[in-house]
Specification:
A hairpin with a 5-residue loop joins strand 2 (122-124) and strand 3 (130-135). The protein starts with a helix and ends in a 5-residue tail after the last helix. It is 47% helix and 12% strand. By secondary structure, the chain is of the alpha+beta class.
Length: 173
């Protein structure tokens, strides 16, 4: 029944894209990861809607629970709309000891995001321009602290690096 709802709320173009993606990955190892990656990138807000997950489950004949398990396990997948630009701060041990907490606080201040003691995994600015994400580790500990901006990794990040990247992205002062 949920799949019928998903079909009725998804556009024909979204369904066609998902169908082509499922066929292209059929029988391949790790097919589900590839399907979810492509479907997410195709979405204008870079996230996986409940409707698309239900549609993929039905069309690929994969249990919906398995799809949600994969989509929530891997940090690359988003279940909420994302901003135009993504800024991700590593909070792993090496990055923490090299100042990533103060970078995160500075970033929140610069983008006028709530600055509290909690660290939600993802928060988007009200204008939809920026999504700030926190991850446990990028696996780049020798470059601590590490930041990712629109899929580009920056190492040995300091406040000047952060400010330069925000200016590059056209943040308004």
């Amino acid at each position: 029944m949920a799949a019928i709802t998903a079909q009725s709320t998804m556009s024909q173009e979204e369904q066609t894209f998902a169908d082509r993606t499922i066929v292209a990955h059929s029988g391949m190892p790790g097919a589900l990861l590839g399907i979810l990656q492509q479907v997410q990138e195709h979405n204008s807000h870079k996230y996986l809607t409940a409707e698309i997950l239900e549609y993929v489950a039905e069309k690929a004949d994969i249990p919906l629970a398995r799809i949600y398990s994969v989509a929530t396990f891997f940090a690359q997948f988003n279940l909420d709309p994302q901003g135009e630009h993504s800024i991700c701060i590593c909070r792993g041990t090496a990055c923490h000891t090299h100042g990533s907490r103060s970078l995160l606080q500075r970033l929140r201040h610069e983008l006028a995001l709530p600055d509290d003691d909690t660290e939600p995994s993802s928060i988007t600015t009200p204008d939809g321009r920026f999504t700030v994400r926190v991850v446990a580790c990028f696996g780049q500990c020798a470059l601590a602290p590490v930041m990712e901006v629109d899929h580009a990794i920056f190492g040995h990040v300091n406040e000047q690096t952060l400010e330069r990247e925000l200016q590059h992205l056209g943040r308004k002062k």
